[in-house]
TrEMBL record:
This is Uncharacterized protein. GO terms for molecular function: GTP binding; GTPase activity. Belongs to the small GTPase superfamily. Rab family. It comes from the Eukaryota. The chain holds residues 6 to 219 of 262 of the full protein. Transmembrane segments: none annotated.
Length: 214
């Protein structure tokens, strides 16, 4: 460790998906920078963080992508192949990203946004908030979207976040385990706040990806 000029053997793109406010951005902040914030701002557009680690003597750069709820996004085609994505926040469309500074022409289909996010992903974390039943019930839809867009060999992990709020639990561990088993997903309960299982969850998915790819 500590060598900033390491040669990178692999870059693994992993996407975070799930309803708003389940803790995707804080899981990423905890994993990549060991930070946590209680008044986390809603994610606008797509962000990614990287973290380099060593798996089986190989240097692996994890590139973890984070986004606001997909449902709030529209993709706009810009001149050439560049894209811009507008995120609707409180009814206002905010253009947050473009590969050129010339936009916007015409809205194109929702499906294209999603494809851009999933393109090249070798892992996905499906995150719900264990104190919000609805966020768990929506996992099936997120999984369907993922299966519709991602590579069929993508490694998927189901994450029940906010396990520090045990007294407010709305999703029994067994329900999640059963869903994970049925859908062939890894499963872990985490707390970004208390750091519980965050490192373990990322290491588990990255190690599995490595095992498949190497
Ligand atoms: P995102 O919309 O899925 O990216 O959710 P955020 O990461 O922005 O988190 C939404 C809210 O939940 C913020 O107030 C976070 O501080 C809080 N939060 C995130 N993770 C945890 C956790 O593990 N425990 C608790 N108690 N709160 C969390
Ligand atoms: Mg976020």
């Amino acid at each position: 460790g500590g060598d900033f000029n390491q040669k990178i053997d692999y870059v693994f793109k992993v996407v975070l998906i799930g309803d708003s406010a389940v803790g995707k951005s804080q899981l990423l902040a905890r994993f990549s920078r060991n930070q946590f914030s209680l008044d986390s701002k809603a994610t606008i557009g797509v962000e990614f963080q990287t973290k380099t680690l060593v798996i089986d003597n190989k240097t692996v750069k994890a590139q973890i992508w984070d986004t606001a709820g997909q449902e709030s996004k529209r993709l706009f085609r810009v001149e050439g192949n560049a894209i811009a994505i507008a995120v609707e926040l409180l009814g206002q469309a905010t253009v947050w990203y473009a590969e050129t500074d010339r936009f916007i022409c015409s809205p194109i289909r929702y499906r294209a946004v999603t494809s851009a996010y999933y393109r090249g992903a070798v892992g996905a974390m499906l995150v719900y908030d264990m104190t919000k039943r609805q966020s768990f019930d929506n996992m099936a839809r997120w999984l369907e979207e993922l299966r519709g867009h991602a590579d069929k060999n993508i490694v998927v992990m189901l994450i029940g976040n906010k396990c520090d709020l045990g007294s407010l639990r709305a999703v029994p561990t067994e329900d999640a385990q059963e869903f994970a088993q049925r859908e062939n997903l890894f499963f872990m309960e985490t707390s970004a706040l208390e750091s519980t299982n965050v490192e373990t969850a990322f290491l588990t998915i990255l190690t599995e990806i490595y095992r498949i790819i190497s």
